[in-house]
C-alpha cells in the first residue's frame, strides 16, 4: 500500500543529503519531499532535481529566499554588529533560522508529519534548525539521521553511497571534499587537514576571496549609502539587498578581504576549527560602525556595544526566534532612523580603510571638536566633572 505520510527534507543535492534521502526512504514508510532554500549558495538546480528524481522523489521544491535572507536576517544582524568570539560574523548561524521557517511552511502546506535535516550530531546546525522547527511547527516530528542511524563516519557514508549508486563528488585532488557551507553572506570550510589546528589552511580551499598577496596593487574606492541603518546603495546607485551584497562580495573578494581562520566554541561544548570567507559582510560591518559614529549619541552606541556579545551568542546558539533576541533587537534598532548618510572606503590587499563619513546628522559637532577657540564648549565645567568622578574612585 502506498503511504500518505510525508517527510520534508532540507535537501542540497549533495552527498550527505542524498544519502539521508535514501535512508529515509528505506527506514520510514513515507513520501519524501525535497526542499531547497536558495539563499545565494552555489546551486545547480538541474543537478538537485536530477539527483532527487533518480532516487524516486516526485515533489522537489526550490525556493528563492535571497532577498529575504539579506533584508530580514543579515541586515538586522549587521545593525547589531554581531561578531561571535571576536571574529566570526555568523554566516552559517544566520541562515538556519530562515531555512527552518520556510521548511515548516512547506511541511504545513503538504500536511507532512515530519521534517528532516542533514546536520551532524556534533554540530551547531542541528540546534539551530530544530529550535526554528519548534518555533513554527511544534507538533511536527523532527528526524535527525545523524543522531540515530548506524553510519558513524564519513567513511561509512561513502560506503553507503557506493552501495546505492549515489555519486560522490571529488575535490581538485580527487579526494572526498571538505565540508563546505555557503550562502550569499559567506562560505565556511571545515574538515580534513583543517581539523588539526597545527596545519595551515591550503590556499585551494578559498572560493570567493583572492589572497591579499595576489590582490590588485591598486586600491579600490567605493561609497556605501545608508538609510535608517541599512545599506541602500553603492556609489550612489540604489540596489536591492541581494544585488548590493553581491556587488560588495565581488569588490571585497578581489581585494583579499573577509578571510578568517578560527577555532570556535560550539554550543554543545566542542571546539572546532574552520575557515570562513565573508567579504561583503566584512565591508558592511565596518561601514555601518563608521556611519553610526557620526549619527548616534554615545549612550546609544555604548549600549549596543554592551549587549553585542550576548546578541551574537544568541544567534550562534540558534535563538534567533527567542524572546531575548527580539528584546535585544529593539535595543539595536532604537535609533536606527537616525543612521543615514554615506561612508567612503578604500579596499587594498585585505585591508579596509575608512576615507570619509557624510551625513546631515548633528550628532557630530565641528564647533565642539575644533581646536580653534569657540564658545560652544565650556571648559570651566571640566574641573567639576573630574572632581565628581574622583569621588567614585573610593
Task: Summarize the structure in words.
This protein has helices at 15-27, 45-54, 66-79, 95-109, 125-136, 145-148, 154-163, 241-254, 279-293, 298-317, 323-332, 366-369, 380-390; strands at residues 6-10, 31-38, 60-64, 114-116, 141-143, 179-182, 187-190, 220-227, 230-234, 237-238, 259-265, 271-277, 341-348, 351-358. With 394 residues, the protein is of the alpha/beta class. The protein folds into 2 domains: 6-66 and 94-171, HUPs (Rossmann fold, 3-Layer(aba) Sandwich), CATH 3.40.50; 182-357, Argininosuccinate synthetase, chain A, domain 2. A 5-stranded parallel sheet has the order 3-2-1-4-5, with helices on both faces. Helix 2 (45-54) links the parallel strand 2 and strand 3 (60-64). Helix 1 (15-27) packs across helix 7 and helix 4 (95-109) crosses helix 5. The N and C termini lie far apart (81 Å). The model has no long low-confidence stretch (mean pLDDT 93).
H/E element sequence: EHEHEHHEHEHHEEEEEHEEHHHEEHH
Placed side by side, the strands forming the largest sheet appear as 3-2-1-4-5
Q: Gyration radius, to the nearest Å?
A: 24 Å
Overall tally of domains: 2
For the sheet with most strands, the description reads: 5 strands, parallel
Shape: elongated
Distance between the termini: 81 Å
Can you count the helices?
13
Report the CATH topology name of the largest domain.
Argininosuccinate synthetase, chain A, domain 2
Strand content: 15-25%
- Low-confidence runs: none
Superfamily at the CATH H level of the largest domain?
Argininosuccinate synthetase, chain A, domain 2
CATH class term of the largest domain: Alpha Beta
Helix coverage percent of residues? 25-40%
Which structural class is indicated by helix and strand composition? alpha/beta
Q: How many strand segments?
A: 14
What's the overall average pLDDT, rounded?
A: 93
Amino acid at each position: 500500500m502506498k503511504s500518505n505520510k510525508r517527510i520534508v527534507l532540507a535537501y542540497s543535492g549533495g552527498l550527505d543529503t542524498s544519502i539521508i534521502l535514501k535512508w529515509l526512504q528505506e527506514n520510514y514508510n513515507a513520501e519524501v519531499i525535497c526542499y531547497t532554500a536558495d539563499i545565494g549558495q552555489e546551486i545547480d538546480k538541474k543537478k538537485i532535481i536530477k539527483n532527487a528524481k533518480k532516487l524516486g522523489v516526485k515533489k522537489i521544491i526550490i525556493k528563492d529566499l535571497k532577498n529575504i535572507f539579506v533584508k530580514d536576517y543579515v541586515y538586522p544582524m549587521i545593525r547589531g554588529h554581531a561578531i561571535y568570539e571576536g571574529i566570526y560574523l555568523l554566516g552559517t548561524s544566520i541562515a538556519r533560522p530562515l531555512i527552518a521557517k520556510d521548511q515548516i511552511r512547506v511541511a504545513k502546506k503538504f500536511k507532512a508529519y515530519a521534517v528532516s535535516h542533514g546536520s551532524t550530531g556534533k554540530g551547531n546546525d542541528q540546534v539551530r534548525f530544530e529550535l526554528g522547527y519548534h518555533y513554527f511547527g511544534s507538533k511536527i516530528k523532527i528526524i535527525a539521521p545523524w543522531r540515530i542511524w548506524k553510519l558513524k563516519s564519513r567513511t561509512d557514508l561513502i560506503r553507503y553511497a557506493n552501495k546505492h549508486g549515489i555519486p560522490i563528488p571529488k575535490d581538485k585532488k580527487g579526494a572526498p571534499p571538505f565540508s563546505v557551507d555557503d550562502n550569499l553572506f559567506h562560505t565556511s570550510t571545515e574538515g580534513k587537514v583543517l581539523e588539526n589546528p597545527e596545519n595551515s589552511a591550503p590556499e585551494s580551499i578559498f572560493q570567493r576571496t583572492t589572497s591579499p598577496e595576489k590582490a590588485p596593487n591598486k586600491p579600490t574606492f567605493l561609497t556605501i549609502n545608508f538609510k535608517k541603518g541599512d545599506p541602500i546603495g553603492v556609489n550612489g546607485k540604489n540596489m536591492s539587498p541581494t544585488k548590493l551584497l553581491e556587488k560588495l562580495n565581488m569588490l571585497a573578494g578581489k581585494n583579499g578581504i573577509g578571510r578568517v581562520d578560527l577555532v570556535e566554541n560550539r554550543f554543545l561544548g566542542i571546539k572546532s576549527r574552520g575557515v570562513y570567507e565573508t567579504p561583503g559582510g566584512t565591508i558592511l560591518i565596518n561601514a555601518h560602525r563608521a556611519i553610526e559614529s557620526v549619527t548616534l549619541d554615545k549612550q546609544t552606541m555604548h549600549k549596543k556595544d554592551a549587549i553585542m556579545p550576548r546578541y551574537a551568542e544568541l544567534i550562534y546558539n540558534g535563538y534567533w526566534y527567542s524572546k531575548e533576541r527580539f528584546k535585544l533587537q529593539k535595543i539595536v534598532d532604537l535609533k536606527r532612523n537616525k543612521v543615514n548618510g554615506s561612508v567612503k572606503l578604500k579596499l587594498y590587499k585585505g585591508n579596509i580603510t575608512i576615507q570619509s563619513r557624510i551625513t546631515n546628522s548633528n550628532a557630530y559637532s565641528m564647533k565642539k571638536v575644533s581646536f580653534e577657540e569657540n564658545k560652544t564648549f565650556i571648559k570651566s565645567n571640566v574641573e567639576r566633572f573630574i572632581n565628581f568622578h574622583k569621588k567614585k574612585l573610593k
